[in-house]
Amino acid sequence: MLKVKINGNEYIGEKGQTILDIAKSNGVEIPTLCHHEKVKPYGGCGLCVVEIKGFGKLARACATEAADGMDINTVSDRVVQARKIALEFLLSDHVGDCRPPCMLACPANTDCQGYVGLIANGMYKESGDLINERLPMPASIGRVCPHPCETACRRGALDEPVAIAWLKRFVGDVNLANKQVDFKSKATIGTGKRVAVIGGGPAGLSCAYFLRMNGYAVTIYEAMPELGGMLMYGIPEYRLPKEVLKKEIDMILSMGVQVKTNTKIGCDISLDDIKKEYDAVIVAIGAWKSSRMNIPGEDLHGVYGGIDFLRNVAMSDVQHESRDKIVSSLSIGKRVAVVGGGNTAMDACRTAVRVGASEVYTLYRRTREEMPADPVEVEEAMEEGVIFKFLSNPVEIIGEDNKVKRIKVQKMKLGEPDASGRRSPVPIEGAFEELEVDAVIIAIGQSIDIEGFESLQTTRKRTIIADENTFMTSMEGVFACGDVTNAGPDIAIAAIGEAQKAAYSVHKYLGGEIDHIFGNIKEYDFYSKREVTPEDIREIFKDREIEYRPDIDIIEADIRRKNFQEYVPIYTEEEAKREAMRCLECGCMDYFECKLIDYANKYGVAPERFAGDVHNRRKPSTHLHIVRDSDKCILCGLCVRLCEEVRGVTALGLVGRGFDTIVEPEMRKVLEETECDSCGLCVSACPTGALVEKQSLIKAVPLNEKYTVSTCGLCSKACSIKVATYGNHVVRVLPVSDARTADILCIKGRFMYVDVLSNDRLKSAYINDRECDVEKACEYIIEEIRKNTGKKVVFVSADYTNEQVDKVLLFAKAIGAEVVSGILRQHKFDDASAFAGVNEFGLRVKGIKALEDAANLKEEIENGDVEVLVSFGDKLEGINLDNVNFKAFMSLHMPKHEGVNVLLPDSSYFEIIGTFTKKSEDGTFEDREVNACIKPFGGISSSEILDNLCGKVCE
């Protein structure tokens, strides 16, 4: 026994233990990337270094044996700096995308790859839940977002970007329709603290949503009659139906958010009064003032700001009032000029068409190519009859009797690029044009109405100054986010992104963890990025079939221009899945488990300091169960050493020398042609995404999984397993690090569970091919059994737990049936098979026969001597059941036999609780516990169905 000090605390260890061993056993973290308990110390990563008092050099904890009296420091500045440098060296040649470019381009950091991949797998609720982690209004934002994620999408280099926004809309709509959205349950128990949110637009609503999830009482103060902000009053009905928006707002309000509408700060209540009443305040009032052009005639009657015009239309009843009445109330006349080239200008000109203007011009001082508006919006506006006049800059609005009559336009040409990169328009001397118009709508930008907030410091542009990290304003306890802050107006998803951070900042502030002057709560996020050109992408995916987005039959322009109905239909389920499958899966599948990225962020790395040559060796992986990516390998050697030292196999080895060293299968074969037996040990040990499993899902998705320790039911060895689930789906099965299994599973336990979780799962009960509820099906089985007085046989699956088997035996005894099992386990183990009390497929022998031992039974069944056959989980392949009078199956999948009278949905071993009997190495028996990892797909487990049948037959 020996004593050491680690970071000032004394710990006891044993002679022969390393510093890492003692630290780990006492809960002291020392980072490692190349260490594993089952192989000899390697020390290659250099990450486990520690400082020992009296030693000149840093020591590697994994390879340094502890000595009595050692004084060890694992967190000194010297140690931290050394670890940081070690990580930076490793990352300097680590090539990959920790997170996909679509996600990095999204201002709210929504996991685009994740929710798109879940849609491809038909997991719509899970997809919506993932979106809701960052965004509470997917159906609304999916319709209106300019989708910077799609601009970043690498699929665009092949054919066209994945329709990420439209898929967001799809899953939002589907989950609303299916009542799969439950925000009420997300609200947590109250903290006793209250927060006021001023402004009920996308930023304010999102703040309320995130604050309620942290248990704060929230009240929204809104100046307008209804919540929604620009989504309600600035986006036309044909782009965003208000019914959809209101449903999503109601979901947020269901969390217990209080609302005070028609309440304007500075008029109805002051900021100071609100601040006195609440523990914190968030200002999210948006940008509601239209920018002016400052040209003559701008104050004439008939000149409108873009958002003012859209708000007026939104506040009129466009669905029920006649267009003539709307036109009259808005006084826009029949000829309208809209000034601007952004999405607000497109909304204004297309809305002007819909409210009855017969001649609508859009005036823009640059060319079409420079327009910031969505190209689709421009194209559709043209289809609806809007006349575009490019290189046209209004210089005067001319009126008569204080009303608009004409607009004078200066003709322009493009000069040199400005700060935005667009070529600056230059006037053509003497070139003017006048257009006869009844109204002018100026949609060139928005600004902030700061009235009521004068006590807060503002920028020169009159936006509220908010700390870029904490979002605190100049006033203690008052925060701000969205369009009202710093740089000013931006897209809705950017406001929501800021709302997440502001709500988190308030949470920290009210918990006493943030200093409003020195505080910096910005999380350090390092992401490895694969720098690729469009040409690189086309080369990497040269074998990928060219496939464009699904064609959508939108309503024709002549029809849609006459009303405000939404004219773009939602994707069908088939279209959505097909579109989601187009994702190239750029982001690393190992992101949520990767030790390298975790340490990189903990130590604040800057690997660009060691920039130099990097490898780009992407090779196709052909293994059935394992995906290899050498560019992500850090040469820790764990896969090679574990394969050789633990498994006694040399499937992998280090090839080459120096910088060009690489892990390759032996003799540079493909991995399947080596001694690899697909135990998956190399994958489990890999600290990066260089080795990952192929998932059971149709579309691979990086997911933050939930883990449940259970027991494998595929053979009588009954290995411990860790089941990784996401929602109600098993993604993969992992070994458990204990003495029983030594981190190893066989190929069946590790990778072949997918057989019981395929998409053709039986999820309902059926009577004679007609769907029904389980209760009715059970009643029908009992009725038919009582009608048939001949021989009865009950089959039971080898995959059933002991408790299920007991229930089957009880049922069989009650109906007077012989009990047989027709399936023997495919894998038999010498240490767990053919022993007294338990047969080789793990079932307790209580009058259960294997089919091969049941004399003449198969012949009796095929000859019609058996009148009733009930199968619990047994497929009965190879037996003709045509002559059996009544057949009932409890099955995972639709059985291949025709004429089955009753079908009941079975549960897989991931959905049941019970035990499997196992013979231990000392010859004793033990029952290995089975834990349910997911809920039964049919909503009711097979054990509950068995209870129902037993109860009915015993009545």
How is this structure best described in words?
With 955 residues, this protein is α/β, with parallel strands linked by helices. The chain folds into six domains: 2-75, Ubiquitin-like (UB roll); 101-181 and 530-580, Fumarate Reductase Iron-sulfur Protein, Chain B, domain 2; 184-288 and 448-510, FAD/NAD(P)-binding domain (3-Layer(bba) Sandwich); 289-445, FAD/NAD(P)-binding domain; 619-757, Alpha-Beta Plaits (2-Layer Sandwich), CATH 3.30.70.20; 765-953, Rossmann fold (3-Layer(aba) Sandwich). The protein has 28 helices and 37 strands. The strands form ten sheets. An eight-stranded mixed beta sheet has the order 29-28-35-34-33-30-31-32, sandwiched between helices. Helix 26 runs parallel beside helix 28. The longest helix has 19 residues, at 492-510. The radius of gyration is 34 Å and the shape is globular. The model is unreliable at 516-522 and 824-846 (pLDDT under 50).
